[in-house]
Amino acid sequence: MELTNHFPALILAILLGISFLSPILYRWARKASAPALIASLFLALVMAVYLLVQVLQVGEFTYYMGGWPPPWGIEFKVNLLRVYMLLIILAVSLWIMVYALKDLEHELKTEVMGWYYTLYALVVGSMAGMALTNDLFNLFVLMEICAISACAIISIKEDRACLEASFKYLILSAMGTGCFLLGVAMLYMVTGHMNYDLVNAALPEAVELYPNNMFAAAALFIVAFGTKAALFPLHVWLPDAHASAPSPSSAMLSGLVIKIYAFALFIMFYQLFPRSLLESIPLNEIVLWLSSMGIMFGSIFAMVQVDLKKMLAYSSIGQIGYVFLGIGLDDIIAMTGGFYHLLVHAIMKSMLFMCAGIIIYTTGIRQIKQLGGIGQVLPITMIAFTIGSASMIGIPGTGGLISKWYLALGALEIGRPIFVVIILASSLLNAVYYMPIIVNAFMQQEQFQHQVKPVPRKMLIPLIVGMAAIIFFGVFSRPAIVLLDEALALFF
Fold first, then answer.
1. Average pLDDT, whole number, for the chain?
2. C-alpha angle 96/102/107, rounded to 5°?
């Protein structure tokens, strides 16, 4: 059998393998440890690109771990939507890691760097597995790896705020995991299967015989994935975790980690549950209104923050709401907007946290009120912050406009104009807390008062790549939109 047939498993094997090797390499060949992680992420990304080409040529396919088909073995499913998610995870994590190489020297103690590379690879590998797995038990295992590793990349900084934030995250994540396991138990009780497709085939009859089990399982899944994805009002762990973590960890958590759980909830709703269940109970309506409250309240909370990273963290609560809004509207156009926002937000929010990291690295400043005139001494950083903010607001020429446009079109198509009003209002609120920072950074006449260290080139190059990506996906959105239309059509 050709090696390329094993790419779904090899992607995980490479990432889990480098996580094991990173501390050893850091101890015995320190200069090779970071390049080894970068090379592993790049190789996994190349494999994911090959999977995309293969799916476009031959269509959806499955991979059986060890050659054992379900129900005995673990199955990976490779289709357009899953590969789309996989590409986002691998590409953005590689990009963040390039930035992190220099920033981590400032954020972490030297002796824990090798362990950070281990944790980073575990987070990326677990998310890649969650994107591909077609098995509930395997999903549970990967969720736990992701959750524990994500807590660790917060607490690794070892100050009191990080330890407190990671503990809060761990407790609430454990609550979400408990809800997920209870939901899986209720499904297994009435179907006898863990494989998504086998569960889906058995559920129509189970819905007739045990409707309460199905309703309870669906509610538990909303709480489980809503907690892990920071869906309002289950978001309380996010602001402290994202604000206190090292900046690369903040970029990873906000840009990718919360997104994979929104993706998992979508798979539960549209691949696992039969359509009759979604029509009999208002699951989408629940997600719709929770996401709408998150969009509004996340922006309102962000407006009153004085700490730059905490403002960006609260903003993430509103932005993940757009992804859930696409799911809740239950319309292919709106879902296209939601999944496109998943892509562009991964780029723009990661870049904004990188900008915050550079500001802290060079000046030590975290307070928004102290940023007046900083554009004079950190022009590239603040231009990147401006472009990222413009995309968050939804200004033409940026990717953020495209996703909001499709969400609004989807809301109008199903006759729910109130959600168009919510999207417009939230964009206005985004402008209220992003624009003063930009105006003060560039327009304030007074000289920036604080001492500024030079910005390393390794930290600036990722910003330039991020700016180009935001504009590219704002101008050339058609290929990704066409891919999403084709990918989502399989679920309707």
1. 86
2. 90
